[in-house]
TrEMBL record:
The keyword Transcription regulation applies. The lineage of its organism: Bacteria, Bacillati, Bacillota, Clostridia, Lachnospirales. SUPFAM superfamilies: Homeodomain-like, RmlC-like cupins. It comes from Anaerosporobacter mobilis DSM 15930. This is AraC-type DNA-binding protein. InterPro entries: AraC-bd (IPR003313), Homeodomain-like_sf (IPR009057), HTH_AraC (IPR018060), HTH_AraC-typ_CS (IPR018062), RmlC-like_jellyroll (IPR014710), RmlC_Cupin_sf (IPR011051), Tscrpt_reg_AraC-type_HTH (IPR020449).
Length: 302
C-alpha cells in the first residue's frame, strides 16, 4: 500500500502546490488511513478548502474544536486556518483546494468586494449540513465540481469548474457571518505569529531537553500565555505537541532506518527508552517494535 504524507515547513504551512499559476485549483480524494501516520497532520495553506465526506466519518480539528463530519456532510476551511483530519472508521473525503485568484485577481472589484471580506473577516470554518438549504446547495455544487475534475478529456472542464466555483462562492458569501471589523483581528494575528515562532522552535529543538519555559521564552511571553496561544491555535498544550512531534519523528526513523529503539528514543528527545515505548504505545496503539514490523519500510542505516 502506498502511504501519503502532508509536508509542511517550520510554521506548519503546507509545502505542496495546489494547481498552478494558470489554474490554481486541485482536486483530491483523500483516504485518511492511507496517510503516513493514519491521519492528516496539522497544517495550513493560503488557499481555501472545501471538503465533503463520501465514506465513514471524518474528524476535523480546528483550534480546540473537534468537528465530526458524517457521510454527506462537508466543511469550508478558510485561508490560513490550521487544521487536522482524523478518522476512526476509514473516512474518505473528496475535496478541492484553490487560491482565491481562481475567481478574481487581487485588487479587482470582485476580489475586494466578495472574496477579501471572507478571507479577512469571515469564520475560520463553516460546517456544511445537507439538511440546511444553502449549505446543501454548496454540497451539490461541490459534487458537480468533483465530476468536472474527473473529466480529464473535457476541454470545457476548467471553464465549467470556474463557473461552478464562482456560484459556490456566491452562496458562501451570502450566508456566512462576516464581521464589518474583524473581531480581535490584531490580537489573532499576534497569537498566530507567536504560535508559528514557538512551533518552529519545537521543530528545530525537539531532540533537546526543552520544556514549557523554553518554548515560552522564544516568543517572549509567559507560560500561561503560551498555554493559551497553543490552546487557541491547535487545541493542545505545548508539551503535548512536543511529545507528539517527537513520536512522529521516531515513527519515521522506525520505518526508514535500522537504528535501535534505544537509540531512536535518545535522538528524538525522550529521557528513557521505557518512557518512549510507553508513550509510543499510548499514541499508536502498538509498541515501537510492532510498528516497525507492520510498516516494512526498513532501509539500511545511514
Amino acid at each position: 500500500m502506498q502511504f501519503y504524507k502532508t509536508t509542511t515547513d517550520e510554521t506548519l504551512r503546507e509545502i505542496a502546490t495546489h494547481g498552478n499559476d494558470k489554474y490554481p485549483i486541485a482536486y483530491y480524494v483523500d483516504d485518511i488511513c492511507q496517510f503516513d501516520l493514519g491521519f492528516i497532520d496539522w497544517h495550513w495553506h493560503r488557499e481555501v478548502e472545501f471538503v465533503t465526506v463520501s465514506k465513514g466519518t471524518v474528524n476535523c480539528l480546528i483550534g480546540q474544536n473537534r468537528i465530526c463530519l458524517e457521510k454527506g456532510w462537508g466543511i469550508f476551511i478558510n485561508s490560513g486556518t490550521i487544521h487536522r483530519f482524523e478518522t476512526d472508521d476509514g473516512g474518505i473525503m473528496p475535496n478541492i483546494v484553490f487560491a482565491p485568484e481562481l475567481i478574481a485577481t487581487e485588487r479587482s472589484l470582485i476580489h475586494d468586494t466578495y472574496i477579501l471580506p471572507v478571507l479577512s473577516s469571515g469564520p475560520s470554518y463553516q460546517i456544511l449540513d445537507p439538511k440546511i438549504s444553502w449549505q446543501n446547495t454548496i454540497l451539490m455544487l461541490l459534487d458537480k465540481i468533483y465530476d468536472k475534475q474527473e473529466q480529464n478529456g473535457d476541454s470545457l472542464s476548467p471553464l465549467n469548474t470556474l463557473l461552478l466555483t464562482t456560484e459556490l462562492w456566491k452562496y458562501l458569501f451570502q450566508n456566512i457571518n462576516i464581521e464589518t471589523v474583524p473581531a480581535n483581528g490584531v490580537k489573532s494575528a499576534l497569537h498566530s505569529s507567536r504560535l508559528q515562532i514557538m512551533l518552529q522552535f519545537i521543530h528545530e529543538h525537539y531532540a533537546e531537553n526543552i520544556g514549557l519555559e523554553d518554548i515560552a521564552n522564544t516568543a517572549n511571553i509567559s507560560k500561561s500565555s503560551t498555554l493559551e496561544t497553543f490552546r487557541q491555535g491547535i487545541g493542545q498544550s505545548p508539551v503535548s505537541y512536543l511529545i507528539e512531534y517527537r513520536l512522529i519523528q521516531a515513527a519515521i526513523l522506525l520505518k526508514n532506518t535500522r537504528k535501535t529503539i534505544i537509540n531512536i528514543s535518545l535522538v528524538t528527545g525522550f529521557s528513557s527508552a521505557a518512557y518512549f515505548c510507553r508513550m509510543f504505545k499510548y499514541h499508536y496503539k502498538m509498541t515501537p517494535a510492532e510498528y516497525r514490523k507492520q510498516t516494512l519500510h526498513i532501509t539500511p542505516s545511514l
